Task: inverse folding
């Protein structure tokens, strides 16, 4: 038996019966319902942050006040003498629900921003590693080019070869045999 035994399980994923955390079926539905509620709360918060919401809320309040002040006495449902208690309660209820919905939407946005920042950081690390690799490659190419012969050296070598070839092509002037006869 060696130091590392094959049956230790370190070389294979855990089986379903091991100490792995089991996911209950309700966990998935809880996550999806939380996600659905989160999207709904973001939509409400997004809607409450628009000028149209403020305009409509102002219009509803003005109609409410006008109706309960100038409307027929038997049709009024909120007394001006009591300071429009129902309107105050409705606006307080709206504000008490709006604040947590807005905070929930902000928390979800913070989570998305955190994930985006982490992805940006990882991308920046990869870009830095790629840039460093490319810089090393450029330096290696410069060093390789430095070892290559330059233009002047090649010209000088070509000239030397050309003169050598010309010397081989043009034999040395031999003594003229006709000159001996004369």
Result:
């Amino acid at each position: 038996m060696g130091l590392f035994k094959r049956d230790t399980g370190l070389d294979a994923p855990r089986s379903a019966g091991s100490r792995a955390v089991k996911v209950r079926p309700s966990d998935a539905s809880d996550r999806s319902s939380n996600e659905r509620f989160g999207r709904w709360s973001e939509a409400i918060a997004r809607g409450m942050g628009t000028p149209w919401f403020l305009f409509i809320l102002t219009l509803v309040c003005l109609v409410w006040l006008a109706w309960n002040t100038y409307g027929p006495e038997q049709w009024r449902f909120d007394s001006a003498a009591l300071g429009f208690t129902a309107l105050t309660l409705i606006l307080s209820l709206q504000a008490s629900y709006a604040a947590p919905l807005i905070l929930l939407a902000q928390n979800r946005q913070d989570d998305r921003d955190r994930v985006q920042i982490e992805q940006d950081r990882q991308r920046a690390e990869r870009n830095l590693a790629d840039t460093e690799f490319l810089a090393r490659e450029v330096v290696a190419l410069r060093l390789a080019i430095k070892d290559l012969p330059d233009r002047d050296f090649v010209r000088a070598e070509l000239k030397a070869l050309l003169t050598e070839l010309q010397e081989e092509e043009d034999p040395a002037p031999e003594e003229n045999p006709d000159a001996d006869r004369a």
Q: What stands out?
A: Residues 85-147 form the longest helix (63 residues). The helical segments are 25-48, 51-70, 85-147, 151-169, 177-181. The chain has one domain: 32-163. The radius of gyration is 45 Å.
